[in-house]
User: Fold Malate dehydrogenase from Poseidonibacter ostreae.
Amino acid sequence: MNKKIGIIGAGNVGSSLAFTLATKAVCSHIVIKDIRENIVEAMCLDISQASNSAKSHTIVTAAKEAKDLKDCDVVVITAGVPRKPGMSRNELLLINANIMKSVIADIKDNCPNTIIIVVSNPLDAMVYAALKTSGFASNKVIGMAGILDSSRMSHFIYEKLGYGAGQIQSSVMGGHGDDMVPLTNYSTVAGVCIEELLNKKDIDDIVQKTKNGGLQIVKLLETGSAYYAPAYSTSRMIESILNNEKKIYPCAVLLSGEYGYTNIVAGVPVMLGINGVEKIIKLELNEEQKNQFDKSVLSVKELTDVLDKEFF
Ligand SMILES: NC(=O)C1=CN([C@@H]2O[C@H](COP(=O)(O)OP(=O)(O)OC[C@H]3O[C@@H](n4cnc5c(N)ncnc54)[C@H](O)[C@@H]3O)[C@@H](O)[C@H]2O)C=CC1
Ligand SMILES: O=C([O-])CC(=O)C(=O)O
Assistant:
């Protein structure tokens, strides 16, 4: 497909994403930008060679300067610091907001019509920072987290059941933090709700494991955070956008009245097509889920209030 993807930040997530997109031949050109120029050069060679091995037409090049981002259809921002054991994602707020500011300036100058996918943490606040500093329309700035959190939930459902791999559909809403809202009544195995297959204790355990999914990997890795599932989840968002698939995924977007909130970024199910976010889907939440969603939104708002006061 004759499309160009920019990836800013060639660390663990950025490189895994470039590898996935190139070997799946999702686009014709991937351009990668990072402040670590030698790393980017090595990565471009390595992934280009993998692309040839996969008989993919995707070419992968290093952005020597910001203008190499020109004509990108989608730019993914993974630039930023990951947390280490003992840290919460929120502690990355100001350091990553500063990185976001410089990256957005490059995007605005060189591909002002692109769609931005934000991956850097704390995710919802970084989407807000990208929106405010770019001035882009809200359909064009989208955060990746809900697909990842849902994939984690599916994995933990499989662990409990011991069957159904590949047939599990999970749904997680809210901010990408400790207060995220796994929706057990919207989670199914081959169409059967997990509430019919598992007892309450097992379901509560799945919910807790999902919320801690990122932390579990941070503790084991010791040097950074997860990257294969984050990269793969991002690739699915890109495919839906480039191919105009109109698939529905939970993504972090700016709300304008949906779910009762305005000027707040939170994870909700959205339809992704050639225009980015083409529709926000309204799910019926029960009282408890509404309360949990409100709490999660409040946690995001605490961070964006800091950005509003100290950053913009
Ligand atoms: N939304 C989500 O679900 C997830 C978010 N993350 C977040 O994504 C970010 C990246 O994670 P990793 O790739 O594991 O980190 P990493 O440390 O491996 O890579 C980050 C890269 O950003 C680069 N960078 C820093 N400042 C830059 C700038 N101004 N311009 C271009 N590149 C710059 C660094 O040189 C480094 O190569 C972190 O903030 C992490 O917390 C990670 C996993 C999941
Ligand atoms: O846990 C982290 O810091 C990285 C992340 O957001 C995730 O893997 O969910």
Notes: The chain has two domains: 4-143, 146-310.
